[in-house]
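Encode chain A's predicted structure.
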Amino acid sequence: MTGDNRVGPPRSGSERDTLRAFLDYHRATLAMKCEGLTDEELRQQSVPPSTLSLLGLVRHMAEVERAWFRRVFEDADAPMVWSDRIDFQAAYDASRSTRAEAFGAWEAEVENSRRIEREAASLDLLGHQPRWGEQVSLRMVMVHVLLEYGRHNGHADFLREGVDGTVGA
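Encoded structure for chain A:
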């Protein structure tokens, strides 16, 4: 891993600025955990029977971004990236994936999510979560996605350590 170029969240600020900054910090953390690795290293799986890999996490987070921003606020019928149905586990199979493919999809979904958030008048914007059949606020979506990144960045810490011994941050 090269240097830590992440921008830390503000110590004070509005709710929206804080949520946005923490999301971007965690997005940058996932990217940093994958920095400097080959496709083969990114596909390296954890201990059996798990098939989890860093590349699988990137693919999974592309699905999370799509399911929670695009499908909730723009197009409930938008297809998932790596499955014909809403199957978040399908994204973990990165056995034939490449950095370019996985990061291309993830970065596109992140940019779409950022656009949706920027264009929203407030965190009270409501969208329809098709999986639940309920209305959810942009605030709830941002918190939910932030929690997903927090959980999976913990996995990324262990996966990276298993690949090349790199720990921290």
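The chain has a mean pLDDT of 91.
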